[in-house]
Amino acid sequence: MAKKQADLLQGTLDLQILKTLALGEQHGWGIAQRIQQTSEGVLNINQGSLYPALYRLEEQGWISSSWDVSDNNRQAKYYKLTRTGQKQLAEEVANWERLSGAIELVLQSS
Fold first, then answer.
1. What does CATH list as the number for 13-108?
2. Angle between helices 47-59 and 28-38 (to 10 degrees)
3. What pTM was estimated for this model as a whole?
4. Which among 52, 57, 71, 93 counts the fewest CB atoms within 10 Å?
């Protein structure tokens, strides 16, 4: 049975980007691919959502960027998590765990 792709839950894209960049510097397409791979193909981030989020995260100081040459010899903008971004990631994870725990309680109630 093929896995159905899911729409992103509002507010989770920042968390996913920050978590992906906690693993190391990556260009935009690589971030989207990593999220798709780690979600086993369920989450698909489109460019129309990804790049505005990256610009917003950079404006907030949670990530920084620099130009470099990608594996296929093309210029690419690489993003990395800042110290402030690491703190924000910890906050985002704590918020997600609290929220998902509460939703789980609602789903288990009779």
1. 1.10.10.10
2. 110
3. 0.88
4. 71
